[in-house]
Amino acid sequence: MIASRVRSEIDSSPRARSRNMGTEFRRNNDNLKTVALLPVSRNVPIESFARKLHVALEGIGAPTSYLNQVSVSNVLGRHAFTRMGKLKTAAWLANQEQRYKMVLYVADSSVGSSWTQTCIRQADYVLVIGLGDDPSTGEYERLLLSMKTTARKELVLLHPERSVLPGSTREWLKVGGTSFAPSTAYNYETESTMGPSTYPR
Hints:
Radius of gyration: 17 Å
Low-confidence stretches: 14-30, 189-201
Distance between the termini: 18 Å
Largest sheet: 7 strands, parallel
Helix content: 25-40%
Number of strands: 7
Order of helices and strands: HHEHEHHEHEHEHEE
Shape: globular
């Protein structure tokens, strides 16, 4: 399950282990605990995938804060992503990262929005979510590469079927090159979305 993979990345990282040795109050970029969910394009059902991942993480004992543009705006108001609200938003996000084991930053707004850029900047770990049958470089992926973040990046491909045709991943790797580490593919049309499909490499 992808939830277990994400948590294992966090629990096994040197930065996460250092948190247990007196670094509780350091900036959370010292800990692999902030995960951005970034769609390749607007065609990806990012909200559905993110909700299921959130439930799965909570289910394996990882208290997780789920943040999207609406939830943050509801708390901080309409100026949350303006220059006026920048400091207030940064302080509130830092508080979320201290309170929870993990924070999911769901990039559910337009590619040019302040929230999408915030998701990328805050993340230690970026999951790029694509559709398995559409191996094209999307606008969000181009934004991610242009921002030159040092966060770990991993590609998750969504497929409508549990079984994936052999070799189908190669087309994605041709397009993306070595920008992202490939991950497991998932069924996005059923309740078993968080379970792995066959993913030939």
